[in-house]
Inverse folding.
């Protein structure tokens, strides 16, 4: 990333800072070269005035940016709050037999995971192969497939328990580092110097960065939506109610492609994108279905539990889904008579062509045949959800969480 943002010439205070540190390294004192503390100082005094919602402020300016609290909160309120899921289900699915059996005995509820164990399979990298890539005229880049285990406490605090830094085939082949702080209220005085744990959290953040930028933001928020856009333009007339509802939500959707700033080759990156696209199930990711699948309540009543008070995404997205769906239904009923809507939709050749196009040519898994008003409401609501609230969730906090040291 540094190579991508470094200008050809540097003037002013930045020049002085770089030359001072480079001189220490070249002069035979590499231990005096740029440290994390140096990066903190640089971030503090050399930020560009921002136009984002935080106006250039980023997480690296917080005194405890490296702490468990800041690390864990990103799974609830950061750039990628849509992937955390119930751990026991993930353990069973991934074949963690020991953990699936033991963890319920230790703590039978409220264990959640950010599980990127599948990275090697998705990218075509061998189990014992190191994630490494170097673009011409660029620096070396590394990646990893981290798995992070959290416990959600009654007061709503999410606390990291353990991190598999880079999952390789089995747990015994992988390095797992456990948190010395067992609970959120344990003393944090040693956090700054707990370098093994800080390294593990760095691995988790590197993994989540790739998953967010390539898998969630680029693939799920852009490519899935663009497949629907193409399918709609190919099959739905411009005067059809479905086209009229969706068109306004697509006017500013423009993809941004990541190049040589991750530890994957372009071939591996394309494989990963294809894996995420082909394994994304449209129906399973309807907000109520997605919340239930990931181990969270999918009702307003269920989300009143104090454990979820800090999970801003989940507390808001269900209400947003409901509002969008009510809007969609009201618009559809200006076109279809409610008493006859199911039959009319089932016979609407444009709707059926739309489904076939999205499934067959768009290759969107789970975009099933639409046979009634409720199914059409859900399908359209999902498309608006991806283009608007979902994309907003994974897009607008990137500067705050990812431009600084985290």
């Amino acid at each position: 990333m540094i190579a991508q943002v470094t200008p050809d010439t540097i003037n002013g205070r930045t020049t002085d800072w770089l030359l001072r540190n480079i001189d220490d390294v070249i002069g035979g004192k590499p231990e005096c070269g740029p440290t994390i503390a140096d990066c903190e100082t640089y971030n503090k005094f050399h930020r560009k005035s921002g136009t984002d919602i935080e106006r250039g402020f980023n997480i690296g300016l917080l005194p405890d940016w490296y702490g468990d609290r800041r690390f864990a909160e990103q799974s609830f309120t950061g750039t990628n709050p849509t992937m955390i899921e119930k751990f026991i289900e993930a353990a069973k699915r991934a074949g963690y037999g020991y953990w699936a059996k033991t963890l319920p005995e230790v703590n039978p509820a409220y264990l959640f995971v950010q599980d990127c164990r599948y990275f090697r399979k998705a990218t075509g990298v061998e189990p014992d192969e190191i994630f490494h890539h170097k673009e011409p005229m660029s620096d070396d880049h590394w990646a990893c497939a981290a798995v992070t285990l959290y416990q959600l406490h009654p007061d709503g605090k999410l606390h990291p328990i353990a991190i598999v830094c880079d999952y390789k085939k089995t747990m015994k082949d992988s390095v797992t580092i456990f948190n010395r702080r067992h609970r959120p209220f344990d003393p944090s005085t040693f956090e700054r110097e707990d370098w093994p744990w800080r390294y593990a959290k760095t691995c988790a953040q590197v993994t989540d960065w790739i998953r967010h930028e390539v898998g969630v933001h680029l693939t799920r928020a852009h490519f899935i939506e663009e497949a629907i856009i193409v399918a709609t333009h190919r099959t739905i007339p411009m005067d059809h109610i479905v086209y009229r509802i969706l068109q306004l939500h697509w006017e500013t959707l423009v993809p941004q492609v990541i190049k040589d700033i991750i530890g994957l080759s372009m071939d591996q990156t394309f494989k990963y994108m294809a894996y995420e696209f082909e394994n994304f199930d449209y129906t399973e990711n309807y907000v109520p279905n997605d919340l239930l699948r990931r181990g969270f309540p999918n009702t307003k009543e269920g989300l009143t539990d104090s454990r979820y008070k800090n999970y801003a995404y989940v507390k808001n997205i269900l209400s947003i889904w409901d509002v969008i769906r009510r809007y969609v239904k009201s618009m559809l009923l200006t076109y279809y008579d409610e008493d006859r809507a199911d039959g009319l939709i089932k016979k609407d050749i444009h709707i059926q062509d739309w489904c076939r196009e999205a499934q067959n040519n768009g290759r969107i898994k789970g975009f099933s045949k639409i046979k009634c008003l409720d199914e059409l409401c859900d399908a359209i609501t999902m498309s608006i959800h991806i283009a608007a609230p979902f994309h907003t969730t994974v897009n607008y906090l990137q500067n705050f969480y990812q431009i600084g040291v985290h």
